[in-house]
Amino acid sequence: MDKLKPCPFCGGEFLATGVFDQHQYIVVDGYCLSCGMEFRYTQSFAVSNVARVAENDSFEDLWNRRASDVQ
What we know:
The chain has one helix at 59-64, and strands at residues 14-21, 25-32, 38-47, 52-54. By secondary structure, the chain is mainly β. The mean pLDDT is 84.
């Protein structure tokens, strides 16, 4: 995983407890080591015989997004 920002609630470190990469989706499970906030994310893909294209944001993009980033 790319560089992840600290937990948006307490500033703790996120620990991924499971990353499951299937053909049409990726599931990420994890929690904050400090406050215990749990997080599960599923990224889905449109799959053809030549490409796998993400249909939504990646886990890293979603986790690293903060309210202050929205303009």
